[in-house]
Amino acid sequence: DIQMTQSPSSLSASVGDRVTFTCRASQNVNSHLHWFQQRPGKAPKLLIYAASSLQSGVPSRFSGSGSGTDFALTISSLQPEDFATYYCQQTYSTPYNFGQGTNLEIK
Amino acid sequence: EVQLVESGGGLVQTGGSLRLSCAASGFTFSAHYMDWVRQAPGKGLEWVGRIRNKANSYTTEYSASVAGRFSISRDDSKNSLYLQMNSLKTDDTAVYYCSRIALITSGGTRPFDIWGQGTMVTVSS
Questions:
Q1: Is A89 at the interface with chain B, CB within 8 A?
Q2: Which residues contact A92 (CB under 8 A, 6 or more apart)?
Q3: Cβ contact (<8 Å) for A49 and B105?
Q4: What does the pLDDT profile of chain B (125 residues) look like in tens digits?
Q5: Which of A22, A24, A39, B71 has its CA 20 to 30 A from that of B21?
Q6: Contacts of residue B36 in chain A, CB cutoff 8 Å?
Q7: Chain A positions in Cβ-Cβ contact with residue B105 (cut-off 8 Å)
C-alpha cells in the first residue's frame, strides 16, 4: 500500500497570509495526487487534481505542485473561508489512501 | 445540478447488517466509476471501495478493512449506488460518503470530483 504523509498536522495563520502544506507518498504516484478541503460537518471538496490542475470553480489563490513522491498545496492569500482541514489523496493504486490531514486554524 | 444524496444510515448492533444508498442526479451516472469513502468521528478520510462502470464490467475493489464484509453494487437504471455492510464492527462507525469519480482527465488521473453529504452509521456493542 502507498502511505501518504502530510505536514504539518496543524497550522495557525492569519487572513492574507501565504501558506504551503506538503504531502509525501511512500512510493512514486506520478501525478495521481489530489487535494481536498473539508470544513467542519461538510463533505470534502476537490480543489486540485492531477497534482497541479485547478478544479472548476475553485479560486485561483489555490495552487498545487509536485510529482513523483513530493507534493505541495499553496494558498496565496488566506481568506476567512479557507480555515478548514486539507487532505491529499493518491489514486495511482488501490487502496486510494488519503493523508492524515492538515488543520488550518486562524491565528 | 450535479448531486449525490446518501441515505440508509442509522444505529445497528455489532454483527448486524445495513444497506446504504446513494442517489445520483444531474449527470450521466452510468458513465462514471463510483466510490465509497468513510470518516470515523474526529478522524481522517478512509477509502472503502469502488465499482466501475458497465464498460469495465462493473468490477469492484475494496479496502482490506472491509473486504469480505462489504459489497458495492449499482443500478444504472435507477441512477443509484449501494453499499451492503455485513458483520458490522464498532470500528465501522463513521460517516459514509459516496463519491463520483471523474471521467479520466488529460493527466490520466481519476479524481473524486463530486461528493454526497454523507450518512452516519453507528455500530454499537
A1: yes
A2: A2, A25, A27, A28, A29, A30, A32, A33
A3: yes
A4: 999 999 999 999 999 999 999 999 999 999 999 999 999 999 999 999 999 999 999 999 999 999 999 999 999 999 999 999 999 999 999 999 999 999 988 778 999 999 999 999 999 99
A5: A39
A6: none
A7: 49-50, 53
